[in-house]
Amino acid sequence: MHSSGADPRSDDPHAHSTPGGSSSAGSRRAVGRRAGGPGSEGPGSEGPGSEGQRTVVLLGSTGSIGTQAIDVVDSAPDRFRVTALAAGGASLDAIAAQAVHTRAEAVGVAAGSVDALREAIAAQARRAGVQGYSPELFAGPDATTRIAAWDGGSGPADVVLNGITGSIGLAPTLAALRSGATLALANKESLIVGGALVTGAAAPGQIVPVDSEHSAIAQCLRSGRPDEVQKLILTASGGPFRGRTRAELAGVTPAEALNHPTWDMGRVVTTNSATLVNKGLEVIEAHLLFGTPLAAIDVVVHPQSIVHSMVQFTDGSIIAQASPPDMRLPIALGLGWPDRVPGAAAPCDFSATAAWTFEPLDEEAFPAVSIAKHAARQGSTFPAVFNAANEEAVEAFHAGGIGFLDIVDTVEAVLSEHGGSAELTLESVLEAESWARARALERLATRN
């Protein structure tokens, strides 16, 4: 990385965690195509399935990412075909309807039984007038992990889209990587808590980001060489409380926190956007995906959510990716990378007057980003503790047990008590998460 002034790598002992070992601010080694394929350095290069359908496995299929992914597949049936689905199972009817619609060859749910799932699919098939549809079924805690690696006897899927929310997505992420499929990653938590476990399991280019910010960065990085990249700039909408002081945040309610001005997301992600914990997680994700030193990752508030992120190059140029907020665009890129999917989303309309504004992040009111950077610098199991403590605090907030400011305060307090782990393994990550959840609950109980 070439820049004037101090080397931003000097405070960052983990700059080599990306597959391929690049420590430049603009490493693209984590973004590209499935294991064994050629590089993905430029637009238009051929990827797996470029000349035919790509087979797709959807994890978290009934959630926001999963349902929009099915929209993308439906819009480009010549490009994609869903071969397997997995969801939590809270609504068997929902995943059963998806299964009948897509004719998925395998379906899994974490909750419920195979018999109940079979009955739900049969009922949906009758309603749709579909006969003879009988997919392979899985149920139980390991169902999603089994679906992630499912090959149907003909090899792994071309792409596994992990749209699960939370660190429970770690095992499916690792299973998808081991299968050799491209991992279209919307489940940022699995990368964040898994860290080197995930990046070490990924071949160069095997992980393609689906978060809108990281998809934007991947697109912008095509504009220059890795050694020409000076800085990554993540944009944040600022959430529903942009402009408020810390004192003004003390009395906000769960309903207010869920009133996001731009995006329609689940409860945890929407709350994380209000606290800016989500942006802190995205900083860690960018650090791991692109091998970028934490000191070379900035956050800027952009209320319109049109510019999804930017890359600053050494000559002073800043390349931005802009589009109206629509997750179908990064989902389509995740499924089709490095090729684009025509018509995936509507472009910006420049026939009407519009203003795009940018402002600095108020870290006094919203300290989550700086706390996340601290966790990332510590490495080891610290990011897992950051995420787990936050998940417990968010639940307590929505249960009415704590105030809004208590969420991030609890995360910081639990993180300060953590000693890390000598070795990063799946077991040590799970142990650290369990400790963080228990410690967070203990602290939260004293606030009631």
Task: Break the fold down into its secondary structure elements and pairings.
Blueprint: E1 54-59, H1 64-75, E2 80-87, H2 92-102, E3 106-109, H3 114-128, E4 136-139, H4 143-148, E5 159-162, H5 170-179, E6 182-185, H6 188-194, H7 196-201, E7 207-209, H8 212-220, E8 229-236, H9 246-249, H10 254-257, H11 267-275, H12 277-290, E9 297-301, E10 307-313, E11 318-322, H13 328-336, E12 359-360, H14 368-378, H15 382-398, H16 404-417, H17 426-445
Helix pairs in contact: 2-3, 6-12, 6-15, 12-14, 14-15, 15-16, 15-17, 16-17
User: Total number of β-strand segments?
Assistant: 12
Order of helices and strands: EHEHEHEHEHEHHEHEHHHHEEEHEHHHH
The N- and C-terminal alpha carbons lie at a distance of 49 Å
Main pleated-sheet profile: 7 strands, parallel
Described by the principal axes of the CA atoms, the overall outline is globular
How many individual helices? Answer: 17
Q: Quaternary arrangement of the chains shown?
A: single chain
Mean pLDDT: 88
Indicate the low-confidence ranges by residue numbers.
1-29, 32-50
Radius of gyration: 21 Å
Strand order of the largest sheet: 4-3-2-1-5-6-7
CATH homologous superfamily of the largest domain? RNA polymerase sigma factor, region 2, helix turn helix motif
CATH class designation of the largest domain = Mainly Alpha
Name the beta content range: 5-15%
Class derived from helix and strand content: alpha/beta
As for the number of domains, it is 2
* CATH architecture label name of the largest domain: Orthogonal Bundle
CATH fold field value of the largest domain: Rna Polymerase Sigma Factor, Chain: A
Domain DXP reductoisomerase C-terminal: 323-438
Enzyme class: oxidoreductase
Binding site for 1-deoxy-D-xylulose 5-phosphate: 188, 212-213, 237, 260, 273, 278-279, 282
Domain 1-deoxy-D-xylulose 5-phosphate reductoisomerase N-terminal: 56-195
